[in-house]
Design brief:
The structure holds two protein chains of two kinds. By secondary structure, chain A is an all-alpha fold. Chain A folds into two domains: 357 residues, no CATH class; 41 residues, no CATH class. Helix content of chain A is 71%, strand content 1%. Chain A is built from 18 helices and two strands. In chain A, a hairpin with a 6-residue loop joins strand 1 and strand 2. Chain B has one domain: HUPs (Rossmann fold). The termini of chain B are far apart. Chain B is globular, with a radius of gyration of 14 Å. In chain B, strands 3-2-1-4-5 form a five-stranded parallel beta sheet, with helices on both faces. The chains are: A mainly alpha, B alpha/beta. Chains A and B meet through loops of A and loops of B.
Chain lengths: 512, 130
């Protein structure tokens, strides 16, 4: 079998001592940033990107894969022990997880989260290995018009579906697309948005943009809100589960996986919706509905499985189509480009060994997370006692070093500061960061497909809907855009339904 | 006149509080309980939570001691907060708890007790955990 032998080759690459070491480093680093609210895997990958230029691309991506899965995993620890979600995808986990911890069942909550993540991550990665080549087969037949349509769909869906305010989402997307436009137009050679500054002609380096928005923006934001009343983390020993916990957990794990993977794989992915769906489902199906709201283990098991399966799902469009739908995948895509690797459907054929090593390292990372983190849970909780000035000083140091090392130009540090201030303002005014990053990364690629389409049709805009798939995608786009208005109409006729989650469910994190 | 006690939810802190209650009862003065945090970390186990503060409140009330409990989070270290409070309320006595520190730990983190002992303008009573 083709997939099987490629995957085995991938394992052979990923299990060399050096690559295995990078996987361990990635997993530990990823969990650490996942545990700390405000820091996320996307920021970490962006910070490490310049540092890893000296490495083989394969080693770098194996480390990034570890960071990605580790970040998903680490968020749950903070949710459960502190009731502050470390990641936006663990908001739902906090609902039941923290109640369990308060009732003295923190060890069981952590265990079901860890084992559920492992189960869902493993199934999700297996599905990724099976699905991605199928998607590729379908994708190579697509022409530029369809690509353009699918990318538009991904951008609009991420902007409109996730987050609380569509207006803010689109504002952020617009900012990102504008930043992506800076530089020389690849077709006509005209300068765009360079303000006569020759150093801007090459465009803004994506590493500088990502580091500025994620790291500098967050550091400024934390500096502006440095002092807050400290909390106590609920003390916990070694996570473990009893027989009845296993019995009540395994079905939610599998159902969570079933929710998570497809949602992650859709271009409108993200882990928030499936975690929430999983929670609602478990609440309805549970044999102990009276325990929900007081710490039901199903309410931790399901959503945690869902967010890890979604993390695996998100990699399907990223690897098969070059379409990222969360911040970490977007930064990883940027990493491909900075290694001179062209993302897209050709990736599997042109960089087969790298891609399969990456997928194999996801399996390995998952396993490592389980065996490293079950015993280390109490240690991760200690990480939260780290004074933030030390932490953010370190991050700013790496951010500056990274931004400077990309081109060795002091001008990049100016851009870092300006965009860092922009990142701060976005947090201040509640603009989501993800659409901006996607806009910066996907913007130039979308433009490329648009130009190609228009060149093929000799400038006739009808070329944009010349492929049937493009037409279908545009219809979906129209539905997504019209949906809230339709919903408003329905609500007007049927008023008085309460929202299921409180509006401010406490996601202090923007980095996905 | 008041007695200022630096409180942390640890055995040393409890010992200091117990001693301070005894002193306050002896002289019938107001007891000012200070429990502070710099507030720069997400989790600080030396910052008492509401339930702990409530139990101290109850304990002082049942013993009939005039008291004020303060929990400043202003970015200052605990020594500065205790010394500030002592100066502001013209304290006659500061009570603190001591714990054993390694020389390296003291070098890196500094010592709150040492600063209070050296810089206070009033007598300082230092107690160890029973």
């Amino acid at each position: 079998m083709d997939v099987w032998s490629s995957l085995m080759d991938g394992f052979a690459t990923a299990l060399t001592p050096l690559n295995f070491m990078y996987a361990v480093i990635g997993v530990i680093l990823g969990t650490a940033v996942g545990v700390l609210p405000g820091l996320g895997p996307a920021m970490t990958v962006a910070l490490l990107l310049p540092v890893t230029y000296a490495l083989e691309p394969t080693s770098a991506f194996i480390m990034f894969a570890g960071i990605y899965y580790g970040g998903m995993y680490g968020g749950s620890t903070t949710s459960i022990l502190l009731n502050t979600p470390g990641e936006s995808s663990s908001v739902v986990t906090a609902i039941e997880g923290n109640k369990m911890a308060k009732a003295g069942r923190a060890a069981q909550a952590l265990a079901t989260a860890a084992i559920g993540s492992f189960v869902a991550g493993t199934i999700g990665t297996a599905l990724l290995a099976v699905c991605a080549p199928i998607v590729v087969k379908f994708a190579v037949s697509l022409g530029a018009p369809s690509y353009f349509a699918i990318m538009i769909l991904a951008l609009l869906a991420v902007t409109a579906v996730l987050g609380s305010s569509r207006l803010r989402g689109f504002a952020s997307l617009g900012l990102g697309l504008a930043i992506g436009l800076v530089g020389i137009d690849s077709v006509t050679g005209q300068r765009r948005l360079t303000f006569g500054q020759p150093l801007l002609a090459d465009g803004l380096d994506i590493v500088v943009v990502a580091v500025a928005i994620f790291a500098v923006g967050e550091a400024l934001w934390v500096a502006a809100h440095l002092r807050r009343t400290p909390l106590h983390a609920i003390p916990v020993g070694q996570p473990w589960m009893g027989k009845s916990d296993w019995k009540r957990s395994w079905k939610p794990w599998l159902r969570g996986t079933a929710f998570g993977f497809p949602f992650g794989a859709l271009p409108a992915g993200g882990a928030e919706i499936p975690t929430f769906l999983s929670y609602v489902t478990e609440k309805r199906l549970s044999k102990h509905p009276e325990e929900f709201g007081k710490g039901a283990i199903e309410g931790v098991a399901g959503p945690e499985a869902a967010n890890n399966a979604a993390a695996a799902g998100t990699l399907t469009p990223m690897l098969a189509l070059g379409l990222p739908t969360n911040a970490t995948a977007a930064v990883m895509l940027a990493a491909f480009t900075s290694y001179g690797i062209q993302p897209g459907p050709q990736l599997f054929s042109s960089q087969g060994p790298l891609v399969w090593a990456l997928i194999a390292s996801l399996f390995i990372g998952n396993f490592l997370l389980l065996i490293i983190n079950l015993p280390l849970a109490p240690l991760w909780a200690k990480l939260l006692q780290l004074p933030r000035p030390y932490l953010y000083a370190g991050i700013l140091f790496f951010a500056t070093l990274g931004a400077y090392s990309v081109n060795l130009q002091a001008f990049d540090l100016m851009i870092l500061l300006v965009l860092g201030a922009l990142g701060f303002m976005m947090r201040r005014f509640g603009l989501p960061v993800l659409p901006l990053i996607l806009g910066v990364i996907l913007g130039p690629r979308i433009e490329g497909q648009l130009r190609k389409t228009l060149q093929l049709s000799a400038g006739d805009p009808a070329g944009l809907w010349s492929e049937p798939i493009a037409v279908v995608v545009y219809i979906i786009v129209a539905i997504i855009l019209a949906w809230p208005f339709a919903l408003k109409l329905i609500k007007r006729n049927r008023p008085g339904k309460k929202p299921l989650l409180p509006a401010n469910s406490g996601a202090a994190d923007y980095s996905d | 006149m008041t007695i200022v006690v630096g409180y942390v939810p640890t055995p040393e802190g409890e010992a200091a509080l117990t001693q301070a209650i005894a002193e306050a009862r002896k002289t019938d003065t107001t007891l000012l309980v200070i429990n502070s945090s710099k507030g720069d970390a997400l989790v600080d186990n030396r910052y008492a939570q509401d339930s702990e503060i409530q139990s101290i409140e109850d304990r002082l009330a049942t013993q009939g001691i005039k008291h004020v409990i303060k929990q400043p989070v202003r970015g200052h270290d605990a020594a500065a907060e205790v010394l500030d409070a002592a100066e502001e309320h013209n304290a006659e006595l500061i009570v603190i708890g001591l714990r054993r520190r390694t020389p390296v730990g003291k070098l890196i983190m500094g010592s709150v007790s040492q600063r209070i002992l050296l810089e206070a303008d009033c007598p300082v009573l230092a107690v160890k955990a029973g």
